[in-house]
Structure formats: structure tokens, C-alpha cells
């Protein structure tokens, strides 16, 4: 099955954060993205978004409050 590609605005909604923060994640290399033409900007694949979320799973072993 082919991956779906999500625009930055929709990624921000799904992560409950700002679009600027999504761009920061992309620029830092923490979130993989593709530039789809100059007009359409960046797109994030569904699998890249799920990998990003899974990599940030918190468990009792890695739970740290500041």
C-alpha cells in the first residue's frame, strides 16, 4: 500500500502543535519530509509521522521530569 502524504498544517493538527514547530522538526532532521514542488511546500508521509511518534514513547524507564 502506498503512503499518504500529509501537509504541514495537518501534521501540526495531529501533533497538537504549531506549523512553525513542525518546520523546526523537519529542519532539524527529526521528522522526515519531502518538498513537493515550490507551490505545495513540504509533505510528511504517514509512515514518517508514525515513526516520529513511536520514537517518542515514554516508559517508566525513560520517564524524567525535568
Low-pLDDT segments: none
String of helices and strands: EHHEHEH
Structural class: alpha+beta
Q: Which radius of gyration do the C-alpha atoms yield?
A: 13 Å
The helix content, as a percent range, equals: 40-55%
Summed up, the domain count is 1
**Overall form:** elongated
- What characterizes the major β-sheet? 3 strands, antiparallel
Count helical runs.
Answer: 4
Strand content: 5-15%
Can you characterise this structure?
With 66 residues, the protein is α+β, with helices and mostly antiparallel strands. It has one domain. The chain has helices spanning 8-15, 19-28, 37-40, 46-55, and strands spanning 5-7, 34-35, 42-45.
Layout of secondary structure:
Layout: E1 5-7, H1 8-15, H2 19-28, E2 34-35, H3 37-40, E3 42-45, H4 46-55
Antiparallel strand pairs: 1-3, 2-3
Helix pairs in contact: 1-2
Summarize the structure.
With 66 residues, the chain is an alpha+beta fold.
Looking at this protein, list some descriptive labels.
single chain, 66 residues, alpha+beta, 3-stranded antiparallel sheet, 4 helices, 48% helix, 14% strand
Amino acid at each position: 500500500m502506498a503512503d499518504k502524504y500529509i501537509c504541514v498544517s495537518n501534521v501540526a493538527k495531529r501533533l497538537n502543535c504549531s506549523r512553525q514547530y513542525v518546520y523546526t522538526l523537519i529542519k532539524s532532521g527529526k521528522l522526515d519530509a519531502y518538498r513537493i514542488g515550490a507551490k505545495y511546500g513540504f509533505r510528511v508521509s504517514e509512515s514518517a509521522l508514525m515513526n516520529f511518534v513511536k520514537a517518542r514513547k515514554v516508559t517508566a524507564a525513560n520517564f524524567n521530569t525535568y
